[in-house]
Design brief:
CATH superfamily of the largest domain: YVTN repeat-like/Quinoprotein amine dehydrogenase
Helix content: 10-25%
Largest sheet: 4 strands, antiparallel
Structural class: alpha+beta
Oligomer: single chain
Length: 416
């Protein structure tokens, strides 16, 4: 009897051993074990297999690897003749890079298309503005709704907190509806002041660092090539009196970005030009933009020393680039070219004082760059296939916020 039991145990152990061997043979090494170049090359080749289980198994295996697979995967995503290999390689790269940099720690749904976000100076509140005319204030820690303001009959285009966090500036409107700029109390949700209606929507807004001035950029697109854009103006108001104190003209297209550099100088941009207005000068310093380029989006660091612009070449639509500017010297510090194999058209940018650059893209990706080196740190899917409409750094880099065309807002932290 004992001999029979012993034989059964032996047989069981034999089959366990065979099963373990088979699992190791078909699943490959564990993710923590080093993998040779030949094995990585074979796995990448299997991404294009006609056998779906083989493709899936190779995908999971490569996703489990660390940075050792990134080089070959990037090469495959760029040069492989197989569309399936290029697609899977790009997604695997994103999965590996995402693990090593950002982590989503909160999600909320505004409702409607979110066009803009802002973070309060103390980092405790997040504001989001939607095409439904509303602004939501969210508790940043829990990403729970704190209050909701109905500020416009049409699109909310831009929001910005005052430096002391007490007020929220909201700009918006559309061609056919109210074109207004409103100042709201964050504490009680009451409208403090409604600035004069413009002749066109207010696309971008901001506060001066001392909180005494507000700024807004406007403009209405031309209906034809023969008809120029109208009301392409940067306006500045005194917060206390509500009076307009500056009116800056010179952009050829609607103003899409405004920001204070210190308490008097201003950076402003449209799709075709980029201006710096020094102190109270009425004539700007024009930063050099190539005629064939279009400025897709702009960001200014909190300390006002760096600006980043994203460009697309309208004659060569595959050519997309980022440009880092030294604001004091009005020159380019670095050009960063996008990999033409990646379908990454920038839709929004943010840059931190320490030179970390976030780029939101058309198909839901966020790419992270180091401005100093020009190296890409990571690229990951943040909002599925939805356009990333806004991206922001919290003060002191506590966290980051992104929003999408679908109306979702996400809070990210950097992995330790």
């Amino acid at each position: 009897m004992t001999g029979v039991q012993h034989s059964g145990v032996t047989l069981l152990l034999f089959w366990v051993g065979v099963s373990s061997f088979a699992s190791a043979l078909f699943a490959g090494k564990g993710p923590d074990q080093p993998v040779g170049k030949d094995e990585i090359a074979l796995l990448i080749q299997q991404l294009g297999s006609e056998d779906y289980p083989v493709r899936e198994r190779a995908t999971r295996r490569l996703e489990g690897l660390s940075d050792q697979a990134l080089g070959p995967l990037r090469n495959a995503a760029r040069t492989s003749e197989s569309p399936e290999i290029r697609l899977r390689a790009s997604r695997i790269i994103a999965a590996i890079e995402n693990r090593s940099w950002l982590k989503c720690v909160g999600t909320s749904q505004h409702g409607g298309v979110v066009r803009t976000t802002a973070i309060s100076p103390d980092g405790k509140l997040v504001a989001s503005g939607s095409e439904d005319g509303s602004v939501c204030l969210w508790d940043a820690d829990r990403m729970s709704l704190s209050s909701r303001l109905v500020t416009h009959r049409s699109y909310v285009q831009s929001v910005c907190f005052s430096p002391d966090g007490q007020y929220l500036l909201v700009g918006g409107g559309s061609v056919d509806a109210d074109k207004t700029l409103c100042l709201w109390s964050v504490k009680d949700g009451k409208e403090i002041h409604r600035f004069e209606d413009g002749d066109s929507p207010f696309h971008c807004v901001g506060f001066s660092p001392n909180g005494r001035l507000i700024i807004a950029g406007s403009g209405q697109c031309s209906k034809s090539a023969q008809c120029p854009a109208t009301d392409t103006v940067v306006r500045v108001w005194d917060v206390k009196t509500g009076k307009e104190v500056r009116k800056l003209q010179g952009h050829k297209e609607p103003v899409s970005f405004v920001g204070f550099i210190g308490d008097q100088s201003i950076l402003s941009a449209s799709i075709v030009d980029l201006h710096i207005w020094r102190n109270k000068a009425e004539t700007p310093n024009r930063l050099q933009i190539v005629d064939a380029e279009r400025v897709l989006c702009v960001a200014l660091s909190r300390n006002g020393k760096l600006a980043v612009t994203a460009h697309v070449d309208r004659e060569r639509t595959l050519r997309r680039s980022l440009r880092v500017w030294d604001i004091e010297k009005c020159n380019v510090l670095r050009n960063i070219d996008y990999d033409v194999s990646e379908d990454g058209i920038p839709t929004c940018v943010a840059v931190s004082d320490d030179g970390t650059l976030l780029v939101g893209e058309q198909r839901g990706w966020i790419t992270v760059w180091n401005v100093t080196s020009g190296n890409r740190i990571g690229r990951f899917v943040a909002h599925d296939e939805n356009i990333v409409t806004s991206i922001q750094f919290a003060p002191n880099h506590q966290y980051m916020i992104s929003s999408s065309h679908k109306g979702d807002i996400k809070r990210w932290i950097q992995r330790k």
